[in-house]
Write a structure and sequence with these properties.
CATH topology: Jelly Rolls
Low-confidence stretches: none
Strand content: 35-45%
Strand order of the largest sheet: 1-8-4-5
Distance between the termini: 6 Å
Mean pLDDT: 98
CATH architecture: Sandwich
Number of helices: 2
Order of helices and strands: EEEHEEEEHE
Shape: globular
Radius of gyration: 14 Å
Number of strands: 8
């Protein structure tokens, strides 16, 4: 079994709502409006386009399993989903995970077991701290 890991650093923001029913997102933008209800963190060190070629290749398979490990203030949340040959990894500002199998340039994982609303609310409270450091590990296996 092949495995590739990506590490991303991001920050929290007071406007994080995390109540979207089908997606979650990390953005390179340094802000989030109250309408950005899928965003979990800002100032991300990578967007979809920045992921390594080896990650993209492995994730571009229907057999790929993708795991997000998201940590803030010692609290860890996991999300698990799938890759797809339809993933393009071309967006320059964000990374999105979806419960559905819909794909756009931001999408890096489909058929996720979680959307923003599914994350623990204590975890989300910590993400609302502007100074919070968010560590994201993405693992793809196939």
């Amino acid at each position: 079994m092949a495995r590739v890991t990506e590490k991303i650093e991001a920050r929290g923001h007071p406007n994080i709502k995390a109540n979207h029913k089908t997606t979650f997102e990390f953005t390179k933008d340094d802000f989030v409006t109250v309408k950005g209800d899928c965003i979990l963190a800002v100032k991300a060190s990578k967007a979809a386009v920045d992921l390594s070629l080896s990650f993209k290749r492995l994730a571009s398979s229907e057999l790929a399993r993708i795991i997000f490990i998201i940590e803030v203030d010692g609290i860890i949340e996991l999300a698990v989903g799938r890759g797809s040959r339809s993933l393009t990894f071309t967006d320059e500002t964000a990374i999105v995970s979806r419960k559905s199998n819909y794909v756009c340039p931001k999408t890096v994982m489909i058929n996720s077991n979680k959307a923003a609303k599914d994350f623990d609310r204590v975890f989300i409270e910590h993400l609302r701290n502007h100074d919070a450091k968010v560590n994201i590990t993405m693992i793809v296996e196939s």
